[in-house]
Amino acid sequence: MLAFDGGGIRGYSTLLMLQAIMDHIRRLETLSQYEQPEETLPAAAYLPAHYFNYMVGTSTGGLIAIMLGRLQMNVDDALKEYENLGREVFGKPR
To answer: Where's the motif GXGXXG (predicted)?
Structure first.
């Protein structure tokens, strides 16, 4: 189970931490297979939905859980959408 808390922009930092975890998973899976480096899958091919059976969250964490779980987005795309959502909701910085 992967649980995300709410808290506005803190959701972005949660996605950054998950991005580091997914990068580590990609490296481990690449090492466990006997492939040449050029044959490895791109980072975007490793989806959190492939590794976590349940994703839940409150507030912005719920939005992240929907993007990663239901919509099966990769973390990079979720970060981009989270940035777009932040601009829509909070506007541009002053």
So the answer is: 6-11
Task: With beta carbons less than 8 A apart as the criterion, state whether 68 and 14 touch.
Answer: no
pLDDT of residue 27: 86
What is the rounded average pLDDT of the residues 40-44?
A: 71
**Pseudo-torsion of CA 77, 82, 87, 90, nearest 10°?**
180
81 burial via Cβ count (<10 Å: 0-12, 13-18, 19+): middle
Q: What is the mean pLDDT of the chain?
A: 87
In the predicted model, what is the mean pLDDT of residues 85-90?
A: 81
The two three-digit tokens of residue 53, written as one number: 């059976």
**Which residue ranges make up each domain of the chain?**
2-89
Q: Mean pLDDT across the stretch 25-51?
A: 77
- Contact 22/43 with Cβ under 8 angstroms? yes
